[in-house]
Specification:
The protein is of the alpha+beta class and 494 residues long. The chain has one domain: 2-Layer Sandwich (Creatine Kinase, Chain A, domain 2), CATH 3.30.590. The protein has 15 helices and 17 strands. The strands form 6 sheets. Strands 1, 2, 3, 4, 7, 14 and 15 form a 7-stranded antiparallel beta sheet that branches. Strands 5-6 form a two-stranded antiparallel ribbon. Strands 8-9 form a two-stranded antiparallel sheet. The chain is globular and about 60 Å long.
């Protein structure tokens, strides 16, 4: 997906910029690999020198949204919608039901979160006004409860070459074997087969970007992994898929299985696929991740560019087809100066604009808090433990019991309220973030949401338990609550 569009140019990526053709030859794959090797060697030189921008803390986001009709059923209208919106930060997504809002980068400290809030609210208001002129409405939710499996087909793919190419190459990599989606909930199980990647379009997220430096990148990257369990539990907003109650955040297994290309097996016997929590911590440098990209992940989109290797077009395009839940990114400013970012892909979209900004503030503050640990995180908790934590939290939400750095096993709810929230609060104040904003987003939104167990997932399941499986009524009520711009812990279940 195209990131930080106002300051980044020549960003070629699978989900953000169109590609010039959709079919490839063996020559294309061979030439792309040669360019990828050359750029990776250059990247290694950058990591061993002072090439990267040394400013840390710049923050931004991407928010994926849905278009729905007057009955809150999915509306395949993003082509007309995007043409009328005509905003450089609003771009297409995989299906005609979806779109994405990108933010500008926000410098650390001060009113950074308030400014993000104002920017997102302004763009969302513009999108809502334009959507109304064509009879649709924008909505933010992890999985749209009214989406039907039959609607997730290639007839509803966005009309861009990169999407048809990605679908074809993923299926080719699987020897055209269909994609089986099997998700076991506590009481219900989903088992379906897809002959394309369109099931991935049912998953929409909030992706948080955090700029780092080579000296801090390993600690930031590892901290993002460690925080994945509390983040997925506290932001869960996708309990239903095709009328079945599955995981607290069903988006996680759905995305992993909808684009499943088993690639290699790690030393613990875990199969690493294209959508992955990862193989291990970073140990010495984020270069390790890009070397793994080169050596372990086959090329999906061999689009060959003629530009200077210093733009890292092939490295970035290849990295964009490996969907780690925490993904390192290389960006460029207008002058071609590279920087490093961590993309945290764990949170669900929604339920409201204040919730989204609070999620960013909580992640940002918790990252800073974990930097205060004197010992490397990789020595305090095994990667297997944090992987297990992540999937437990995605499945059971705030009730999940996980293992933390002190060796204790506790609920995610207890971890957040007793350790992470106080730590994030202090870290944000120490980073000169406006105290009123810290109180608003952490004490005013995250704390009551977690303490009262009122995530978007909890709200949705409470509605269905009270009213029965009327997913259209639930989605309409959800939309009406969302447009009031109040955080989800204040929403009522009528």
């Amino acid at each position: 997906m195209c990131k930080f569009k106002k300051t980044e140019t020549k960003q070629h990526n699978t989900m953000g910029s169109e590609i010039h053709r959709a079919s490839f030859s063996e020559t294309d794959f061979r030439e792309f690999r040669e360019h990828l090797r050359k750029e990776t060697r250059l990247l290694a030189e950058w990591f061993s020198s002072s090439t990267f921008d040394d400013e840390a803390g710049m923050c931004g986001f991407e928010l994926e949204g849905w278009l729905v009709d007057s009955n809150c059923n999915p509306a395949a209208s993003n082509e007309e919608f995007l043409e009328k919106v005509n905003h450089h930060l609003v771009v297409p997504e995989l299906s005609r039901y979806n779109f994405e809002i990108n933010s500008t980068p926000h410098p650390p400290g001060g009113a950074m979160f308030r400014l993000m809030h104002e920017e997102l609210a302004s763009i969302w208001e513009h999108c809502s006004a334009i959507a109304a002129t064509i009879g649709v409405k924008p909505m933010m939710i992890g999985i749209l409860p009214t989406i039907d499996n039959r609607q997730l087909c290639l007839d509803n793919v966005s009309p861009l070459q990169r999407y048809s190419a990605l679908n074809r190459e993923i299926l080719r990599s699987r020897q055209k074997k269909p994609l089986r989606i099997h998700i076991e909930g506590i009481t219900e199980t989903l088992d379906i087969v897809h002959h394309d990647v369109m099931a991935e379009a049912a998953t929409t997220s909030l992706q948080i970007h955090f700029q780092t430096t080579p000296n801090l990148a390993v600690r930031h990257y590892n901290a993002a992994h460690l925080l994945s369990a509390p983040m997925v539990a506290s932001t869960a907003n996708a309990p239903y898929l095709f009328g079945k109650e599955l995981w607290s955040e069903t988006r996680i297994p759905l995305f992993e299985q909808a684009v499943s290309i088993p690639t290699f097996t790690d030393r613990h016997g875990n199969i690493i696929s294209r959508v992955t929590f990862g193989r291990d911590y970073a140990r010495h440098s984020l270069l390790e991740v890009f070397l793994e990209n080169l050596d372990a992940f086959p090329i999906l989109l061999p689009v060959v560019f003629d530009e200077d290797p210093g733009w890292m077009n092939h490295v970035r395009l290849h990295n964009g087809t490996i969907w780690r839940w925490n993904r390192p990114l290389i960006g460029m400013n207008k002058e071609g100066k590279p920087h490093l970012r961590i993309e945290h892909r764990v949170p669900s979209a929604g339920p409201s604009i204040p919730d989204c900004i609070a999620n960013i503030a909580f992640f940002y503050g918790s990252m800073l808090f974990l930097l205060s640990e004197k010992e490397p995180l990789s020595t305090m908790l095994s990667f297997e433990d944090i992987r297990h934590n992540f999937y437990q939290a995605a499945r059971y939400g705030l009730d999940a019991r996980i293992r933390w750095l002190n060796g204790r096993t506790m609920s995610v709810q207890e971890l957040i309220t007793t350790l992470l929230l106080p730590g994030a609060y202090s870290a944000l104040l120490a980073a000169d973030v406006d105290p009123d904003d810290v109180r608003l987003y952490l004490d005013g939104i995250i704390r009551p949401r977690v303490t009262e167990k009122k995530t978007g997932a909890h709200w949705q399941t409470a509605f269905i338990r009270r009213h029965g499986p009327d997913f259209q009524a639930m989605t309409e009520h959800y939309y009406n609550c969302q447009k009031q711009h109040n955080p989800v812990h204040e929403w009522k279940v009528l």
